[in-house]
Amino acid sequence: MKSDRFFLGIFLLLSSVIALFLMVPLGKLFINTGLLSIAKTLTEPEVMDSIGLTLRTALWAVLFVSVTGIPLAYLIARYPFRGKSILEALLDIPVMVPHTAAGIALLVAFNDGFVGRVFSALGLEMIDTTTGIMAAMMFLSAPFLINGAKEGFKKVDVKYENVARTLGASPMRTFFSVSLPNARGEIINGALMMWSRALGEFGAVVIIAYHPMVAPVLIYDRFNNYGLSYSAPVAAAMILVSVILFLTVRLVNNRYGK
Amino acid sequence: MRGESDLLSVRDVTLHKGAFTLGPLSFDVPEHSYFVILGKTGSGKTMLLESLAGLQPVRGQVLFGGKEITWTLPEERGFGFVYQDFALFPNLSVRDNIRFAGRFRAIEDAEALFEDVVDFLGIAPLLDRRVTHLSGGEKQRVALARAIYSRPKLLLLDEPLSAIDPTFRTAIMISLKQIVTRYGMSIIHVTHNFREATFLADRIAVMMDGKILQTGEAEEVLHRPNSLAAAKFLGFKNILPASVLGIAKDRRLFSVNPNAILFSRHRQDREHCLECTVEEIVIQADINKVIARVGDRTLYAKLPKTMFDKLKIAVGEQLYACIADADIMWLPEAVALEEAS
Q: Which residues in chain B are closer than 8 Å to A177, comparing Cβ atoms?
């Protein structure tokens, strides 16, 4: 009994150090700023436009990766093929590179040369456009959704799919009626991770598109030009909106996803 | 050649998976029959069922009702499949699991069939439950209902009784047997349990290491195994040469049921009384097992407690093991030749 208490005491002490470290800055930001100031900031058109733009482009990025990355995750989870482990490692690289370097890489790949000209002909410009912002967000956060979906599909027993086929479902209908619903939890978690990561993207976005300003760029811009007291309410407002949305999706998923 | 009433004909089917090779396999499944494939774990039984369902591409030829279906997609074959762990869809209720096939194909008299299957398998109280909360037996009945509801001509069952509590097995085996006549379909049932095969099968195929050792009418296969491996797998104990009985010219092997051996200190009024030495005694709850040496062969017997206590058998003792002619089962000559080689 005594050793139990000692063990729990040590673990509680160590846990509280990191928990406080993670929570104190956010708490302090809200306390210092005050709810009134946050509410007032949220009425500023520039702030609202910026937060709206951030949420919108991050959502588009998530939707684009849902359509393209979920099939990729399924292929990786289901089929053995040559170079699969190399592909899996390559998909994780964007998470590891410095974000400004990723921004430069995106510019080199999609703004110049043949690919850049093709994009341009299609009306897709990178510099200072929402397309560019979406590309920057997507490049750095897509692995969260792809990996989440991959783990989800790995947990779906291939026998469910086999049985569905014998019951008359084509491969596509098997995917939508059995594979996807049973991997849904992990996919939604991956999408939430990707979305929250995309909302906070600064390094790559600022290289590609300073304007129109997404919230992280606006916070940086105000901090640089006007100081802490002018940027803190925007930061607090952005965090508040993200947390509310994040918790709502989680709650809905937990309530109806089981 | 395909018989008039054969529903499924498998011709020289092979499948390679890593180091394992299935086949070449050839056998026929008659219409409205219960066909049991009997084989040890790892003998390729599940792989064979998946091949028949079209889930694994094979070489060779698979005919269904005389038509070649070797390359037909699983969704177009119309075979039902029940896996060992039942593979019920966790995202659907019991009801939606059973009705799953109705989303993809038109089911004849769907409502009447649904009611009938639910009634037959006694799953009405489960219909609105989630499948994750069912017991092994309940899951099995739901998986069977789901397969039957798709109105297959052929139902493939992969070790369907292995996850079932032994007390319910007989009742479920009776239901399985009834499916053939009640729903007018054939069943291929794979199992490692020869008692299941004895109860259920009209025809049996004995499978080992990806090959079929013997196939035929259940009675024939169960009583006349054509190889030593098949005999051992079918539960034949005490496989011994005729010379043990003092029949020198006969090259055949015989088998004797361990329960039919009578131990005695004197020669008994039975056709064969063999001198033996008790080597080992295994005490169990209801019976005792006695392992005795007869010449250079080992004899394995099961004795009721009462007889054991009466004789007070001890290790190292010299006794007579007496066997009646009626309890001797002679194996085909081919088995003896196989052992000799």
A: 100, 103
